[in-house]
User: Fold TetR family transcriptional regulator from Thalassospira lohafexi.
Amino acid sequence: MNLRIKQRGETRQKILEAARSCFNQFGFEKASTRAIAAQAGVAEGTIFSHFPSKEELVVASLGEHLAEAIERGLHTMEPDWCFVDKLMHIASYRFAQIAFQPGLWQVILQQVVFTPRKGAVQDMMQGSGLLCAVTALIEDAQLDGELNPDIPVNVIRKTIMALFLFTIHQHISLQSFDCEDMCATLRELLEAQVAGLWICEPVLAAE
Assistant:
């Protein structure tokens, strides 16, 4: 790899790590690009050579954080687990990140989920690999007979995303960021969905 490209990549990572730390500690408005640059050990202008705006920096820093959780979850997943267990395994890595930096998720809700920039959430979920990972799990579960194959994959996926956001919103409102508690909330919701709405209808044996 070209040394200059490698150094640019390392600088970008330093900026993203510093941004996550500052956003978590100070929130979006009070986390200035000057403070982020100082923590990253770069000039303030260097930030804007990588990211055109502070909003884009938020999307990138959170997207890569999410991608890390997805990658770890997928690489440590057992193939014989049920659908809910696989989803919860991935979610547990994300909840652990949130428990470690709860302020960061508040920035996600304020500046990404409710951002004025069209497509920010979609970009983050797509770029992190989350949509592909969840879609693959749903399709596998439908093939294995765990989920009703007649329900469109995108409908199940959107519902999962909604339940995840609800879980986070509820725990933020309660200021309760224990990873196990967040997992318990989401698992209860997912299991209710699978058993009540997404269940694959049993095939009746021929008489």
